[in-house]
Write a structure and sequence with these properties.
Length: about 190
């Protein structure tokens, strides 16, 4: 019985620390250069700042977005304006590598989400300190979930949860905090 519990605990911890990260490491940030506006409809061809040419598949979003910042995950999902859209790579206009400073390779993981604390939670994991985030819609994450998004600035952010392909919206209340300072600020929010 004890051995079974130990194995189960190991498997849970292993999947929490390594399982989701492997999926998220294939996500990066870029922007759509053309067309403008980008609609996000089936068959639409678009070009990103990293020189790649993509086609939208099986979606009719009518977004009317002008040069939006987007996230592309696993070369098959586009996250834009809180929507997750299926895409396929159809070509490339150059061989330039994605700017490493704009990559979203390192997801942050939710480390604390206290009950009764409105919608605040803490996330950590990309060497940017601890993030104090507030959930504002879409997928409602839980402890252990990975988040990919532009979280290194204040304000509302569209994010993706790569483990299940869901999208959501969070407010970055603070970031680059030490763990102790993050917990202290979370306590203040939970009063």
């Amino acid at each position: 019985m004890l051995q079974t519990r130990a194995i189960a605990t190991f498997l849970i911890l292993f999947s929490c620390f390594f399982g989701e990260g492997a999926v998220a490491q294939n996500c990066y940030s870029t922007s759509i250069l053309s067309p403008a506006p980008f609609l996000g409809n089936n068959g639409e061809i678009f070009r990103t700042t990293d020189g790649k040419i993509w086609e939208v598949k099986f979606a009719y979003e009518y977004l009317y977005e002008y040069y939006p910042q987007v996230y592309i995950c696993n070369e098959s999902k586009l996250m834009v304006s809180g929507k997750s859209i299926d895409i396929v790579l159809v070509g490339s206009t150059n061989t330039r590598q994605q700017d490493p400073a704009r990559r979203a390779d390192f997801p942050v993981k939710i480390i604390l989400k206290p009950r009764g604390c409105r919608d605040y939670f803490l996330a950590d994991g990309d060497s940017g300190g601890v993030y104090l985030l507030e959930w504002y819609g879409g997928y409602d994450p839980d402890v252990g979930d990975a988040i990919v998004g532009d979280l290194r600035s204040y304000g509302f952010k569209d994010v993706i949860y790569p483990a299940n392909g869901s999208t959501g919206r969070v407010y970055v209340d603070d970031y680059m905090l030490s763990r102790s300072r993050a917990v202290e600020k979370l306590r203040e929010k939970c009063r």
